[in-house]
Amino acid sequence: MNRQPSIPTLEDVAQAAGVSTATVSRCLNEKEKVSKSTLSKVMEAVENLGYTPNFNARAMAARRSNTIGAIIPTMENAIFARGIQAFQVALHEKGYNLLVSSNVYRPELETELIKSLVSRGADGLLLIGHSRDSETYQYLERRGIPSVLAWSMQPGQTHTCVGFDNRASMHPLADKVIELGHRHIGVISGIVEGNDRAQSRLEAIKDSMTAHGLTVDPDMIIQTFYDLDNGSIAFEQLMQKVPTPTAVMCGNDVLAAGAIAKAREMGIKVPEDVSITGFDDIELAKHVYPALTTVHVPHREMGRRAADLLVDLIEDRGSASIIQLDTEVVMRDSLSPPKT
Amino acid sequence: MNRQPSIPTLEDVAQAAGVSTATVSRCLNEKEKVSKSTLSKVMEAVENLGYTPNFNARAMAARRSNTIGAIIPTMENAIFARGIQAFQVALHEKGYNLLVSSNVYRPELETELIKSLVSRGADGLLLIGHSRDSETYQYLERRGIPSVLAWSMQPGQTHTCVGFDNRASMHPLADKVIELGHRHIGVISGIVEGNDRAQSRLEAIKDSMTAHGLTVDPDMIIQTFYDLDNGSIAFEQLMQKVPTPTAVMCGNDVLAAGAIAKAREMGIKVPEDVSITGFDDIELAKHVYPALTTVHVPHREMGRRAADLLVDLIEDRGSASIIQLDTEVVMRDSLSPPKT
């Protein structure tokens, strides 16, 4: 009923310009990769035919739905917000819409949502992290649905992925904290079960402590859901331990912002009385007071490149590839040497 | 292929317990609304039959996709995060999955996304605000797709809606600012075009100023996209005006948090030198320093009740209804009388 056979397709443009559909697509999306003469030939055909790379036309051209699915652990807080927004903007430039679903940090729900998105006709999926059954990948492979993993990077993986090594990213920050002289370090970690990112970050802190000859006291590690209030509660608990921690390392910026707010409420000065660190460098990190020392993750770049990889796979231009992004420690004001 | 005819349906449970399917649903989702004897009868049938209110079983029972679509203006920042998360959790308890799409504050893209979600088989939609063509509603009506509007409330509307009156919500805060003695008031507003919420909040501030005999100076009103950095930039611009504002009212908490951070950077004390107010009462509001005086919006309740309304419409239990939620001014530390 919605079919409008007069709308020109990508194939029509390719035929008129005497080039492949991949070249047309490149002219529309990655002009810099195409020669000037090809570009002008293709753009002339685009104009003559009145081709618009919008949803309907492209779906008709490729028998695709031009819809991508993403499943993220949570929609609350801004942890995935910036990366997903960049992912969406990049997808839309390529003529794809994005549908996002959240599994509320419940691994078993992810499988259900994947099947739901595939049955709704998703052309490809963005998934967060690596903690899932191999059956899920087999399911996607049988149906020919490409997927890209983001937000983490496991050694030896083969699945298309754009991410960063959470362990290697947290390591230099933990080293920095210890090298400044901190010996009693509290940790507010995300729940590690089913969350490879949280687990890797926590392990990096433990590794670094052990490497520096410090004892890892399980009593000084609190696991909690990522949330400002939970960061506050965990911080208060840690500050009642004996000996009191002189530094509290948090699994992400949201927990750290909650810890900073609670410190102020308790009359504890940051960083004079206790240092607090984060992870992610979301926009909030530089706006809390004192500004947060944290690990910068290039969320926008991750979102953009995930879109590139996924669309290349869907449009048969790409093969499995693994992109590891660099992170860096951002020194702001919430970390200093301990009081002597 | 996936069909498993032995899975019991909601109807099976209703029949076994001798009640309506609506009653079974209530027993599963809103226990407090059901008598003890009905509850025990229904739960016995649930147990005997091995009924689980999950995706497959319910979809089979009702020939629905059990998928709801939501289109929100942005995924960045946490403006819609809490309400949408509550919406999703409530939907999932009722056996529905949620797909979220963002139109990046572009009204024309919303129409495209609505069509995409409907063609993907969405049983119903959550839409934000009232600024859209009547054609969109006609499109949904022709296809029999129920929709619920949230986050705003227009006088005289008839569409099913759970929201709050943005104008009436901002009004008492503006009155409060003026009654404290502020005469030079700067405003950092969201972009009002295509955003009825931003427009109503701005109008409330203007109304209140006019009602108190103050002149509204267009030069003291800056419209910008909701973003921490934009709040910072706009605040700096406002503080260069003559006369300098003694209070800056912001269209939401994200802009206000950006303004507070910039004030600190500029060595301007809040609220001693300038008062700053927000709107929304997202989690961030109480965690910035000084804690933000703002308007509390019951985001979680809005999300939950939107889920109730929408599922009732989909399952033919409800008729169009309009739920107006109350907001309240939350006095924290960022608002005080101006220096004399």
UniProtKB/TrEMBL annotation, chains A, B:
Gene3D superfamilies reported for this sequence: 3.40.50.2300, lambda repressor-like DNA-binding domains (1.10.260.40)
Keywords for the protein's UniProt record, in alphabetical order: DNA-binding, Transcription, Transcription regulation
Pfam families listed in its UniProt record: LacI, Peripla_BP_3
Name of protein: Transcriptional regulator, LacI family
Entry's Gene Ontology molecular function annotations: DNA-binding transcription factor activity; transcription cis-regulatory region binding
Organism: Cognatiyoonia sediminum
Domain (HTH lacI-type): residue spans on this chain: 8-62
Stretch forming the signal peptide: none
CDD domains named in the record: HTH_LacI, PBP1_LacI-like
SMART domains in UniProt: HTH_LACI
Record has DNA-binding as a keyword: yes
Record's keyword annotation contains Transcription: yes
